[in-house]
């Protein structure tokens, strides 16, 4: 029990405090009462017994209300008195999903710094390929987190990632400039691709598929599936287009293992990067 002179001082001081209807935390009440933090709870309980304040303790949190706040007379519910989350749920979800991707990037960057590019050129290219894949995962995660918001309203995503991983984000920004510190995330436009007219020639269809594929190109098998045609016809169209410089044909594979296949590329994106073993290196946007 506190000394009598302390309790008298509490009673005098509490009469001078204007406690808001939404209440005060125990720390704020102790500061207003001019008492030490270890005495704040004892003072609040003493004044509660004297009916000079009303103390509510729920969900492990003590809150002090005016003396007029009694049960059944506007006392806040348990939900309003409970401990509120200190971290935005959207931010917590973003960081949780991005953490393993950043961990993979950190391992790749460490390995890139340790190897000698002159002695292991193929491994160095594979590392750069893997880094671009992980950076694309970060970008895809940001697009999902935007959830249809405008670019200016989604800058919190970029700022949160830079605050979370300031050493790795510059590498991600090299692949996706919109994730740079001064970049702006723009919402992805809905896919408004239209079907080709029924009277489109097979040659124009192949050109359209190659153009839509972009830098990675498209395999002859995929073109066959889209056109529902035979291999000989598609190969003939591809060779004709190659002879006039409208496509580039390369025998390669997109994975480190597997069979080599015929892939068509748009010359507008330059020559495809193919390793000596026939593996296509994913381009860096």
Strand sequence of the main sheet, in spatial order? 1-3-2
Structural class: mainly alpha
Mean pLDDT: 80
Helix content: 40-55%
Q: Provide the gyration radius in Å.
A: 33 Å
Order of helices and strands: HEHHEEHHHHHHEHHEE
Fold blueprint:
Elements: H1 4-14, E1 24-25, H2 26-33, H3 37-49, E2 53-58, E3 61-66, H4 78-81, H5 89-114, H6 121-146, H7 155-164, H8 169-175, H9 202-213, E4 218-219, H10 220-227, H11 231-243, E5 248-252, E6 261-265
Antiparallel strand pairs: 1-3, 2-3, 4-6, 5-6
Helix pairs in contact: 2-3, 5-6, 5-7, 6-8, 9-11
Can you characterise this structure?
This protein has 285 residues and is mainly α. It is 48% helix and 9% strand. The chain is built from eleven helices and six strands. It has helices at 4-14, 26-33, 37-49, 78-81, 89-114, 121-146, 155-164, 169-175, 202-213, 220-227, 231-243, and strands at 24-25, 53-58, 61-66, 218-219, 248-252, 261-265. It has a three-stranded antiparallel sheet. The chain has a three-stranded antiparallel sheet with strand order 4-6-5. A hairpin with a 2-residue loop joins strand 2 and strand 3 (61-66). Helix 5 runs antiparallel to helix 6 (121-146) and helix 9 packs across helix 11 (231-243). The model is unreliable at 78-82 (pLDDT under 50).
């Amino acid at each position: 029990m506190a000394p009598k002179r302390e309790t008298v001082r509490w009673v005098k001081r509490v009469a001078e405090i204007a406690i808001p209807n939404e209440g005060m935390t125990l720390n704020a009440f102790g500061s207003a009462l001019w008492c030490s933090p270890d005495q704040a709870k004892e003072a609040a309980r003493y004044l509660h017994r004297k009916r000079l304040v009303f103390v509510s303790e729920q969900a492990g949190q003590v809150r002090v209300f005016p003396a007029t706040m009694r049960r059944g007379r506007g006392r806040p519910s348990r939900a309003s008195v409970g401990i509120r989350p200190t971290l935005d749920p959207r931010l917590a979800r973003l960081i949780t999903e991005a953490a393993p991707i950043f961990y993979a990037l950190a391992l790749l960057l460490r390995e890139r710094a340790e190897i000698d590019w002159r002695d292991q050129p193929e491994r160095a290219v594979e590392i750069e390929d893997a880094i671009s894949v992980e950076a694309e995962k970060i970008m895809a995660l940001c697009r999902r987190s935007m959830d249809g918001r405008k670019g200016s309203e989604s800058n919190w995503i970029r700022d949160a990632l830079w605050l979370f991983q300031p050493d790795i984000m510059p590498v991600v920004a090299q692949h996706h400039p919109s994730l740079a510190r001064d970049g702006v995330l723009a919402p992805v436009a809905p896919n408004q691709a239209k079907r080709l007219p029924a009277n489109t020639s097979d040659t124009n269809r192949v050109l359209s598929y190659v153009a839509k594929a972009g830098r990675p190109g498209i395999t002859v098998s995929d073109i066959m599936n889209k056109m529902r045609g035979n291999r000989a016809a598609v190969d003939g169209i591809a060779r004709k287009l190659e002879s006039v410089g409208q496509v580039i044909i390369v025998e390669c594979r997109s994975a480190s293992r597997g069979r080599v296949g015929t892939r068509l590329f748009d010359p507008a994106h330059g020559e495809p990067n193919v390793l000596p073993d026939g593996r296509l290196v994913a381009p860096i946007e």
